[in-house]
């Protein structure tokens, strides 16, 4: 979620001032929401809930102060042996505690409503993002590689069957539509899966996982093959940076470059596009897509998404960044006990980027490296395949 302070007008009263919100250029939430083509009413509702929560919180603190003062008065009366008056004050505390419990419940209820609504507001869109609802207006930033433009090239679905590297029929039998099994080619190729030793010298790491998504794209699109499926494997870059300066944006560019280098090494032509504001998910302040060239369809298709979510996710997860200060809880414990001041506490910036979704990358490799007799193995992959340079077709369609 974004900082609730961005929804405050600085005015008094129970309702946010729409005119003031629109006139303040520093009021980023309104302008960002409009760039996402989302309704103003959501922002105004958050602002109203924030006013209500702060008022209830103030009233709660007043009741607590009243209870504390009454408790101290009881102590003084008892010390002065004024038992009768002390008992009157003790009776008064019962009523105060009832009001306190009711107000605490009201504060909690208002805070839950505020946080729930706040989660529906997207991150502040970066100023460099193109304002549009139409993804055809995505800006192409980089184009690399020589595209194959021949006619009558086979698509990856046909190539998988001709190479006999995937079992689509059994996949559908076991797990219904958009399912498949990739055949493990250890027998004809040797021990090609024993590749992990070569990764020991990596100094930077990424996460590998099996992923599953219920919605696998538009109905009727890419129903055959392994491009758009329910279950797939992915290597994901994930970075946490300082919120200060330009550090997260420098990391954003570095992560995109990592993905570009990966596809350059595979020899797959691609382009990088900046996604328009209306197509950003709620968490992203800015997003780049890397799209690979698919010769059979004569089009670029998405292989990588890279997003800078700034502090949007960190705020909800309460992942903080703070410098050491001169405030020390226990001087005898040394430097480890120094803690950041509350007013210096910041939320980290969090970024994520695909390096590769393996099934989609396989599709692009098959279409790019196909020949009349089979598929050439990219030079970068040959060491992991026992030196094999070419995989012939084993059946005709």
Characteristics of this structure?
aa-tRNA-synth_II/BPL/LPL; 397 residues; seven-stranded antiparallel beta sheet; alpha+beta; two-stranded antiparallel ribbon; aminoacyl-trna synthetase; 18% strand
Summarize this entry quickly.
The record marks 354 as: Important for serine binding. Helices cover 37% and strands 18% of the residues.
What does this 3D model show about the protein?
Helix 3 runs antiparallel to helix 4 and helix 5 crosses helix 10. This protein has a 7-stranded antiparallel beta sheet with strand order 1-6-7-8-11-5-4. The chain has a two-stranded antiparallel ribbon with strand order 2-3. A two-stranded antiparallel sheet has the order 9-10. The protein starts with 17 loop residues before the first helix and ends in a 5-residue tail after the last strand. It has 10 helices and 13 strands. The radius of gyration is 30 Å and the shape is elongated. InterPro entries: aa-tRNA-synt_IIb (IPR002314), aa-tRNA-synth_II (IPR006195), aa-tRNA-synth_II/BPL/LPL (IPR045864), Ser-tRNA-ligase_type_1 (IPR002317), Ser-tRNA-synth_1_N (IPR015866), SerRS_1_N_sf (IPR042103), tRNA-bd_arm (IPR010978).
């Amino acid at each position: 979620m974004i900082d609730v302070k961005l929804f405050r007008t600085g005015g008094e009263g129970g309702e946010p001032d729409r005119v003031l919100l629109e006139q303040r250029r520093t009021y980023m939430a309104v302008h960002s929401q409009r760039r996402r083509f989302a309704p103003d009413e959501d922002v105004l509702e958050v602002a109203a809930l924030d006013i209500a929560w702060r008022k209830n919180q103030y009233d709660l603190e007043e009741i607590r102060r009243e209870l504390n003062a009454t408790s101290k008065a009881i102590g003084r009366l008892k010390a002065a042996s004024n038992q009768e008056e002390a008992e009157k004050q003790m009776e008064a505390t019962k009523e105060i505690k009832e009001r306190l419990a009711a107000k605490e419940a009201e504060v909690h209820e208002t805070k839950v409503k505020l946080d729930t609504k706040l989660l529906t507001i997207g991150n502040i869109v970066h100023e460099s993002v193109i304002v549009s609802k139409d993804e055809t207006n995505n800006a192409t930033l980089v184009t690399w590689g020589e595209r194959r433009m021949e006619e009558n090239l086979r698509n990856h679905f046909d190539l998988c069957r001709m190479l006999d590297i995937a079992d689509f029929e059994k996949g559908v039998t076991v797990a219904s539509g958009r399912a498949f099994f990739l055949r493990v080619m250890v027998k004809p190729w040797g021990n090609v899966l024993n590749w992990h030793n070569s990764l020991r010298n990596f100094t930077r790491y990424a996460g590998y996982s099996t992923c599953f998504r219920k919605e696998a794209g538009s109905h009727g699109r890419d129903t055959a093959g392994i491009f758009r499926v329910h279950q797939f494997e992915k290597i994901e870059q994930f970075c946490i940076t300082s919120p200060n300066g330009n550090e997260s944006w420098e990391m954003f560019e570095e992560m995109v470059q990592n993905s570009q280098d990966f596809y350059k090494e595979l020899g797959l032509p691609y382009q990088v596009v900046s996604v328009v504001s209306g197509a950003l998910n709620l968490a992203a302040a800015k997003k780049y897509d890397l799209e690979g060239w698919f010769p059979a369809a004569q089009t670029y298709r998405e292989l990588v998404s890279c997003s800078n979510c700034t502090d949007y996710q960190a705020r909800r997860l309460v992942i903080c960044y703070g410098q050491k200060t001169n405030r020390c809880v226990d001087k005898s414990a040394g430097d480890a006990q120094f803690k950041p001041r509350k007013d210096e506490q910041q939320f980290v910036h969090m970024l994520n980027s695909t390096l590769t979704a393996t099934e989609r990358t396989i599709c692009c490799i098959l279409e790019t490296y196909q020949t009349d007799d089979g598929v050439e193995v990219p030079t970068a992959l040959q060491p992991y395949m026992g030196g094999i340079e070419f995989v012939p077709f084993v059946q005709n369609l």
